[in-house]
Amino acid sequence: MNGRVIAQRRIVVAAGLATVAGCGLIVPLVPDRLTNLFLEEGAVNARRFTPVQLDPQSEDSAGPQFVATGDLNGDGRMDVASAWNESKPIQLHFQRVDDEGVITFETISLAGDFPISIVAGVAVADMDQDGRNDVVVLVKDMGVFARCRQTGVFSDAEDTPAGAIIIYYGPDDPATSNNSFTWTDVQLSQSVTAGASPADARMPEAGGFTSMAIADMDGANGPDIVVAWNAAECEGAGNRIEFYTNPGTGTARQESAWAPFTVEVDAPPIKSVVTADVDRDGDLDIIATYPSARTSSVRWMRNPRIDVPDAFHLTDGTWKRGSIAVIAPGSDIVDVGDMDGDDIVDVVMRSSAGRLIMWFKGPERPTTAPVRFVPWQAFTVAEFITRTPEAISLGDIDQDGQLEIAASAQGALLWFDTFGGSTVYDQWEENLLIDDNPPTADLPAVTDPNVDRSEITENATFINAVKVVDLDGDGLMDILSTLDRRGISGLSNDAIIWYRNTGRE
Predict the structure, then answer these.
(1) pTM across the whole model
(2) Sign of the alpha-carbon torsion through 342, 345, 348, 349
(3) Is residue 278 part of a domain?
(4) Cis geometry, peptide bond prior to residue 370 (ω within 30 degrees of 0)
(5) Does a structural domain hold residue 15?
(6) What are the tens digits of pLDDT across the range 115-126?
(7) Residue 463 belongs to what domain range?
């Protein structure tokens, strides 16, 4: 669909908000000519993208951490689910298009029986296979005393995060999806756990549950829930990767029916998990990062569901570990895609301590121990000089048939593409999209000296989530991001931003 947008400035936005009875707020979009709507100070490069705030500008939700997309009301349009760390933790943003093609977003906050204090992930998928999408939330801390899953007793430490997985099941009638009370929340009872205490409780990647992926791991009953869990001492065998097996349509809404299956146990601290068919055998494998690991800080676990004997793996029906990379400063989060067009899955990685983004070329025959332990070829996308990269996401942003990388770095949102005439194995070019910080004159560029210093500022905004997705269905890949303005205000300035791809060069 090719929707147009409504002209609306922040100072008069209240006049343009329409209250929908029992539903939420309709949020008008922003025209191309406004380039400073979401900034107290800073810069927006609106050459290709137009920034649009999805959540209501008049409502002061705060601490946005995650976004996920999918059709949440059965109208064929892409909607957005967002997870926050303060006030109204889970919101749904329904995309509306009127007869004239005007796009608006209606926002509701989900009601529920279970507290959510700190989130570690959100996803959209049809978990009970009823043809309607549901919302899955990985909760790092419910804000209550943590109960150890292994012993059933409560942790003595007050700062132990009480983790859980909550599924919000969509209503039987999709037309009522914009009513908060039609969504049914189910807390998976076996996911109620005690996590390792993080140094900074606001950081989703530290302590307790840190990452989640939704995928069909066992080939039965629909999507399962893969999690990285850094366990408290009372949980016994330590950090682990697990997936909660989907019990199927008839019992998916029963809280005790989802059982964890352990893929890896007693591991170093784990930050990120994603799924992909690394060995191209027809089932999904798991890729994970271990920032403090002394070896193999990026690994893949081979799914034994389709266990084809060959000369590169030991076939005995168990999950085997393979090395992808050994990064001395540590590896934090990953995304996957075919970076070089050879139809083999590659891995893109962000290192916080190393201040870099790299990608690893998937081999034709990826190996696992104990047969072979061979790291993948590594290529650097960007080395940051002063800032620390945060979120990454892959997608074909400029429609050239090649994946680009969207990334955030302490208030800046940018995307990387190869230089004209170069390959994905060479240096990548940085394109600044937004810098949400007060400007200073003496700081260097984000990643390289080719960027004007005036575009780079001190860090005040935390952008934990970036997602490349065609939100409006016009065939152009847009970018979604969170803006958690920790250095600017307490509650009033945070936002979920849709950077709408205009297609302009």
Answers:
(1) 0.87
(2) negative
(3) yes
(4) yes
(5) no
(6) 888 899 999 999
(7) 49-501
